[in-house]
């Protein structure tokens, strides 16, 4: 086997495990805010994602097309979110409806604090996690990058903890990589950076730190060329993962020559 | 009788089942969840469940989101 193929195999043979599910791709991609459904479809394909997030909303009477007409559910695992919920009660209601709609028992739980910052409300998030775990959901929980709340969510039974890199849709990247490192140090569940990713290097950074995956939406959907950006995010995710698995060199203050000392 | 469907008041005849109402509004039943007065109605019960006056019905589906 060629060395390059071995490396490909290495990615395939170390899948991401989320509860009873396994995925080769570690990039989770949202389905909101694309210029058109066709562009979304192409972007999802280019991203290589196996998990795509969706929101739960009222059926519009007389609307003839549906989002799911553009998503092949045999190819993509649907991860419904509780976006737009500002209390545990609302998020639990939304999660139950999502499960009833019949796509999955996986839920991306997000309970937000306010509309301006869209930052998570940790108290309500924890409450909702406890209830949904008891009800048998596979809970992937969106939270702030605070290591203590991340640990509490894990203790409450979350299948995956998903700290924000930066506020939702802000494209600021990973603002506090030290917090992400602290979270990773003690976590026994997969840590997936969710939100705030602006460009490919943000994805690489998250993966190089040792995160198990990255979830993003706006960074692709609002790029000038979403399909091209989706491909860039895919490559960045794989590059970051391989760099993590390879073991990077320590950072040094002073230079160290790559060539032998001159001897003539 | 009058019911509320997704926040809007609608007239519907006595004895209408939830399934009949969904058909009337051409709502694809494969990708939805139905809540009647804040209680989820399992899919297999949609054809049997009769609507009553003043019922509040929510019918949700999946839309684009992150």
From TrEMBL, chain B:
SUPFAM superfamilies: MoaD/ThiS. It comes from the Bacteria. PANTHER family: SULFUR CARRIER PROTEIN THIS (PTHR34472:SF1). Pfam families: ThiS (PF02597). CDD domains: Ubl_ThiS (cd00565). Transmembrane segments: none annotated. InterPro entries: Beta-grasp_dom_sf, Mopterin_synth/thiamin_S_b, Thi_S, ThiS/MoaD-like. This is Thiamine biosynthesis protein ThiS. Gene3D superfamilies: 3.10.20.30.
């Amino acid at each position: 086997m060629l060395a390059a193929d071995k490396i490909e195999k290495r990615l395939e043979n170390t899948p991401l495990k989320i509860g009873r599910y396994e995925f080769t791709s570690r990039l989770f991609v949202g389905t909101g805010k694309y210029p058109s459904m066709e562009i979304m479809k192409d972007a999802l394909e280019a991203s290589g994602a196996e998990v795509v997030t969706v929101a739960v909303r009222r059926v519009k009477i007389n609307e003839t097309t549906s989002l799911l007409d553009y998503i092949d559910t045999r190819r993509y695992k649907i991860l419904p979110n509780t976006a737009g919920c500002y209390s545990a009660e609302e998020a639990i209601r939304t999660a139950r409806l999502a499960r009833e709609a019949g796509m999955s028992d996986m839920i991306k739980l997000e309970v937000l604090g306010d509309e301006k910052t869209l930052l998570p409300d940790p108290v309500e998030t924890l409450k909702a996690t406890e209830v949904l775990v008891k009800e048998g959901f596979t809970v992937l929980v969106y939270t702030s990058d605070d290591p203590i709340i991340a640990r509490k969510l894990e203790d409450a039974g979350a299948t995956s903890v998903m700290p924000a890199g930066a506020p939702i849709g802000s494209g600021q990247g990973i603002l506090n990589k030290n917090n992400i490192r602290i979270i990773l140090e003690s976590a026994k569940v997969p840590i997936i950076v969710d939100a705030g990713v602006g460009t490919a290097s943000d994805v690489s950074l998250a993966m190089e730190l040792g995160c198990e995956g990255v979830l993003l939406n706006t960074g692709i959907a609002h790029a000038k060329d979403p399909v091209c950006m989706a491909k860039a995010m895919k490559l960045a995710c794989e590059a970051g993962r391989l760099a993590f698995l390879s073991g990077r060199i320590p950072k040094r203050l002073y230079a160290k020559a790559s060539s032998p000392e001159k001897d003539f | 009788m009058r019911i509320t469907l997704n926040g809007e008041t609608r007239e519907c005849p006595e004895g209408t089942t939830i399934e009949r109402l969904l058909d009337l509004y051409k709502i694809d039943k494969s990708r939805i969840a139905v809540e009647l007065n804040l209680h989820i109605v399992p899919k297999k019960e949609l054809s049997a469940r009769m609507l009553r006056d003043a019922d509040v019905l929510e019918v949700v589906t999946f839309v684009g989101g992150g």
